């Protein structure tokens, strides 16, 4: 009897709403290994050590859990972009600083895609409008989403005189489309076999192209 009791899931740590977070953490690990297809309610509850029905107290269905994981992954994208920007050494040249911070946004985005392909796929798996993209749960340490970080970097280019004000509107969509495109090619497309150095160079060339284009 004692052995049987030892085999029961330990749920003490999941009181007071912690179960929701535990399930998201478990599902994030599933997505890390297998992408969005691996996010399954039963697998998440098994990994969290609770009964399958327990998940329905917090998530109506698999789609709800997948959306939560998507938001968590998007927040990680934001934090990676922030870390890339924080690593940029400041100079006495405002224009050079603005340009470096803009490039860091794209470099961080690409770094996350290559280091965490499963989570990167999951971040963009659940369709949503720009209201979802600006949700607090998808924000980084600064409270900003990847889209907002890109917008700030573009505003910095305007302030530094590198981007004409009349070309600023909508520039986020052009920059994001190009960087996201190369990211997908590098992790799922014909460029996925490139050596890491070649992959990095390809990403930097795309960022070069964006700079010239805007």
From TrEMBL:
Pfam families documented for this protein: TetR_C_33, TetR_N
Keywords: DNA-binding, Transcription, Transcription regulation
DNA-binding region(s) from the entry: 40-59
Domain HTH tetR-type: 17-77
InterPro entries (UniProt xref): Homeodomain-like_sf, HTH-type_TetR-like_transc_reg, HTH_TetR, MT1864/Rv1816-like_C, Tet_transcr_reg_TetR-rel_C_sf
GO molecular function: DNA-binding transcription factor activity; transcription cis-regulatory region binding
Protein name, per record: TetR/AcrR family transcriptional regulator
UniProt source species: Streptomyces xanthii
